[in-house]
Structures
1.
Amino acid sequence: MTPLVGISCCSLQFGVFGMPKHAASDTYVRATDHLVGAVPVLIPANGDKADIDTLLRRLDGIILTGSRSNVHPSLYGGPPHAEGTSEDLMRDNVTLPLIRAAVAQRVPLLAICRGFQELNTALGGTLHQRLQDLPGRLDHSTPMQPSARIRQGKAHRVRITPGNWLHRLAGTGEIAVNSLHNQGIDRLAPRLVADAVAPDGTIEAVHVAGAAGFAVGVQWHPEYDFETDAVSRGIFELFGEALRERIDRTAAAAD
């Protein structure tokens, strides 16, 4: 049976009249099609109208996507955002309860960039709003370059903790990653384990400690270069393996 993978959407306004739409980047759909071997299903940012239980009964895995918007500070006790900061409470009100339920129900979860920050928030952590404003931190924000190759290119290296899922995948203690974010983890959620850090100490990869299912997150964007980068490709392949293991386990339990 082909897995179904839910891909989180943002609530955005498009077109001349600013009509509200639900959107996710094609890069996540392509990675799901080409690497995960699953059918991508877009999860709308419909706030408290989202039926989390039905979604998780039907879906075999969840990808939490990146976005230009920030997780709302009220959800982790942070100060109000600076004027002009993009927010998306409709998305927050779907993804945070979805994360908690997916972890509890052993539904494989891959959290990327904003999704990584949502994972930390949903499980009780806090966020920095603008890493580039903090003393001693790198500027992790998106390079304002028209060239996608430059925007999405490797920006810095991360040091991987020996023995974890990422270390086993990469086969090395250090890899280069892209960097396109303002927010970052401040206080790590109690259930999360840091698996990689940037040179400035910013946490870049995590897993949920004690989770019965696959539940990991990365701060960078592996969907941008999975065709050329072995680690990026491997992250999606691991996620795909977790989906099929869950399907097999569910089928065996039903026999």
Note: The first helix runs from residue 26 to 36.
2.
Amino acid sequence: MLKRLFQRMGGHQPVELPGYTALGLMREGSMSSLFKAREQETGRIVAIKIHKPQARKAVEKLEAQYRDFTEGQITASFDHPNVIKCFDQGALAGVDYLILEYLEGMTLASLMAGDSKRLEGRRLSYVRQAAAAMAHVHSRRFIHHDCCLKNLFVTNDDQVKLIDFGLATPLLDRPALATRTGTVEVLAPEVLRREPSDYRVDIFAWGVVAYQVLCGHWPFESPEHHQTLSKILNVHPVPLDRRVPGLPVDVSNLIMRCLEKEPLKRLSTETTIVGVLERHRDVRV
């Protein structure tokens, strides 16, 4: 248990924390900082996520309008091999913190940008694991709202972990008014149209990720690359089996259904997606 939260960390040098020894800065973002640390009592290596005080107002606005839980409470509620584990969470001295499992590897975004050879034969496994993670999140009645390449982490032993629940909200029994949050490239059309939305925004986002991972192309490409929002609303993707020879037709059809612009035409559950992909565990693309 983190007894007393540090209020400030300067630079990239190791800093002593009550109960933890910081081993260095892993990532600096606009909303939070992520540090590698060692738990002094057990020696366990963890990642400590610290929300920046200046970003707290935006988080409080999200919590007041759309959820009754903090990011730490949401993350700690999951228990699945494809979802990052949260060991502890809370707020001290006005600063939110999460104690997370330490992951070695890289995001899918970094992997696709660099080590393309590592992807060969593993693409379908990666998207299947991402679907399993999302199915678990939905089973706990939450919506992630930002399933994208940078929020899917691939460990050194090829295990996919869904990370960053900063935008997650409870899964309500009725559609909620959509807001434009999350990574633009995976936003569902109903979100862009400011229409009520539900868990199917995650299904659409997963479909975008699966399409990208399997064929290396964003599904809504067009000559006018800068018109991102217009593409999502108006462009129909090239069927995936045309881009990926050897991909089972039912897998291609499944992913294309996830990319339907009208929510009612999309697949209804991530569990269905996982079921189809499980039948093709031995397929290497």
Note: The radius of gyration is 19 Å.
3.
Amino acid sequence: MRQRTLLIVCAVGMLLLACSATADETIWKEQAAKAMRRAADFFRTQVSTEGGYLWRYSEDLSLREGEGTATDTMIWVQPPGTPSVGMVFLTAYEATGDSYYLDAARDAAHALVRGQLRSGGWDYRIEFDPERRRRYAYRSDPPRKDQRNVSTMDDNNTQSAVRLLMRVDEALGFKDEKIHEAAQFALSTILKVQYPNGAWPQRFTGPPDPAKFPVKKASYPDFWSWTYPARGYMSFYTFNDNTIADTIDTMLEAFDIYGEEEYKASAEKAGDFIILAQMPEPQPAWAQQYNADMQPAWARKFEPPAVTGGESQGVMKTLLKLYRATGKEKYLEPLPRAIAYLQRSRLADGRLARFYELKTNKPLYLTRGDYEVTYSDADMPTHYSFKQGNGIESIAREYERLQTTDLASLKQPGATDAPRMSHALAARARSVIDRLDEQGRWLESGKMRGDAENDPVRRVIDCRTFISNVRALSAYLAAAK
């Protein structure tokens, strides 16, 4: 009898604990939803300009900046600007089903529509001041002489913009004509500016002349100068800053959303360029950028012709992605040579050099101030990473995994696992909730670009923090369903 009573008491205790835990989870779920809505409402009603966003703001919103200082009539395209904030609103919508977040994402998409250039893509920023807008060849405005019409694919600029448009277009059932048309125009432009060999330029104003860009395999120049030539490089075939990788991702996602085979074919054509661009022995990796003769070339004054230990890793990951998307063995074929080369090119500390001299494979650096090419790493500029992390082992493991994986089970690009509840996820969400102030701001210490070195540290609102925290709350709410 005593044992039976004890069992009953234990069962009741366990039930009470379970009920208490469930009630606690319900309270935190409600708080997470309220916190995310409050933060989104502050961003949408107080921070936004015409539905778009910059990168960072002072606490009182009087100072604003993207990659450079900005005004209250300006938004930024380059991540973590308008497309990035719009994407996290979509993430919140998918996690909650609350149309408020979809409306916020649609606002961001419409801001991008108003900033699309006649060349088909986007500049780094969009201006809404009526007089300043006259300088730019925006599709939504009347044409004028001498307007800036340079679309950039550098730093995931045009790519991130069109991806937000596509995602919002899909979420709205393709019923918003302005968003749908702008996305289609951008995608058709990306197809048109793709070179005959499958590459894309860093920037463009229109389609290339095919006669000026013959299809060739990569080769070493007979001579290259250590002296910066100070010439244009916007037409070069560009891996730098993941330009081609981001565009491939865009075209694969376009195929996933719209089902048009030409988008997938474009991504595969870019993969064929990657194969062509692999340097021959003794350095079978990739350069940051190539000229029309398919030889490594100078870009900025701190980016000499070289084989790169940095961008080459991103190129290899792109080849793995293309294999997962297509199952075509040709995208794996370059990898063993590149893996072996980069493994034997490691620096003494295990990292990789950003630049390796052509043919000699000696690590190259530049000096602070005058940017002279040198073999010494004693006086490097601090604004640019001349030594890179080494992720070759993980790339090699993924290559080996794919070699033994059945094609039918390959995970396609864009497929993601639903968030699962964990102690770490719950703790992260609670931390985010606790740090949100009454106005819906996540304030942090920082400096603005206009601040002098001796100015005191101020409190700032950073879009990166907003994006990270809303993503964490969205994951928590999705997992708590």
Note: The first helix runs from residue 2 to 47.
4.
Amino acid sequence: MAGMPSAHSSGDSRAPGTERDGGTWVVIPLFNESSVIAGVIEGLLEVVEHVVCVDDGSTDGSAEIAEAAGARVVRHPYNLGQGAALQTGIGYAREQPGAEFIVTFDADGQHRVVDALAMVALAREEDAAIVFGSRFLDDRTRPGLLKKAVLKTAVWVTNLTTGLTLTDAHNGLRVIRIDAARAVNLKQDRMAHATEIVLQLGRTGLPYREFPVEVLYTEYSRAKGQSLLNSINILVDLVIN
């Protein structure tokens, strides 16, 4: 997995003997990430008991690899888009007995497990229903000038349309308490879901926080062209929808 951090470098912070979190369900939209998904899942399963991948019509064996790595896998028969995969995963996780929090987590290794754990801890400590990860609350993440400009524009549009005040509205790392998750009913299949989910969560009136996270722009993700292309797609979808 050239260019990918190991599960430990992605943020394994669990002390020896520490119990895994059984009340947190991690939801991962998955599409053609066969070379990296096992490491992502293995890192998460060191600290949580439940990881569910929604395979969105992958053609490279991603679903089978995810299952072998220990995740539950829900399959879309063909590619419906990240928004649809996220809705399927949230819908699945929020119906599980004992579920307290849902963490949305990217499949490509850009998110750190240690950040997800800290966000869940913050939600519990401060009784927050939603914790949004933000790469712009500190200077650890270096997305590049053009991507940063596009993302900042998307944040401005999102804050204008949702009434929330966020610094990074399109970060895929989020913690959503189950009562808030019940309000999520995404209709935007593709990138515009990132604004739609903020709008729906904001309408709950439940308390929210932001938490500084580091997004790891790896050689792998840059080679796929995800970094800038996804940002441009977000703006295009915001304008169209």
Note: The chain is about 40% helix and 15% strand.
